[in-house]
Predict the structure.
Amino acid sequence: MFFYWKPEYAESAFRYKYALNERSDMAVITRLKVLVLMLLMGLVFSSCSTSEKDIVRGLSAELTPLDPPVTVKVAEDGAVSGAAFFLAHARGYFEDLGIQIEWVKFPGSVEMLPALAADHVQVAGGITSLSLFNAFTRGIALKIIGDKGHNRPGASYFDLVIRSDLVNEIQDIADLKNRTILMFSVLSADEMMADQFVRAGGLIPHQDVKFLGGFGAAEMLLALSNKSADAAMLIEPTISQGVKEGILLRWKDLCEVIGPTENAVVLASPGFIQNIDLAGRFMVAYIKGARDYNEIFRGGDRGEIAKILSQYTELKDLDTWNMVHLPGLNPDGYALSNLIAEDLVWYRETGYFEGEIDLDKIIDHSAVEFALQHLGRYESLQKN
């Protein structure tokens, strides 16, 4: 809050000094009161303009940076679904709130989940896998705290693709009969989506179609290129790399066949989410990144996203990034709880999961609610 002295205040003071020789003390006191009121009004207006500036930056006046700054370890594998993390970090939103990010990589969820539960890392990107649901039933106190990526109709970033040389042989889902589909992991979101996809064509998973898990993205590209597999459940930007190299084809959009899916979520350690001053500020920065991302889709420069993502992922070719189907990100941060509930139903129906889970206890939106108190809801902001 600053007070700015203005020349007219000096002129007014001179006039009041002159009036001491001309008018009664009562008149002088009255005019002095007016001057004081003018000064106070100037002070109030200065205060208002400062608050408005803070709001434009997306920070309410009472949301101050953490002092001293706090380091938050984030387990992120460089997937395209980390876009909100990367934008928020690149644009200094975490730093603005006194949060320093340390990126950590794990070979897989088997190693990552225990580290998160033990608070060795505080935040992680994850998927709704059997290992995650089993971790909840074993009492590992992780929390799902936000959306990290979901398929958009007509532009699925997590998709079932086919070998490019099979374009005339595989034209419908039924043509996948007796074919082999590779994936990162069975008993996970990969198998769940592939299962629903082939069933939409009247095929029975593991009977009419072979599912093979345990492959990395590069391994799947290699298998498709040497024709040892027919199709794969792949994720961007690997899909666009494969298309550009002539190895694979985008075929039938997964989201349009099976409907929307919550592909990736933000996970938090128990100690992190209990510290609402830290978790809430983290989510303010994260949601600002997600909103920037959505605004770019509303007509901004997509090339800016490509430049930022190339800094945080293994794909450096900007031309390929311009081909990438990017994930949907909730600009209000909420995990898509109804879709997570549908995932759980699938795990139960297939017999993979038999435990008891109360989703209301493992999905914690307290940090999102904290953030929205300071940022406001995205839809309401678009109407103003």
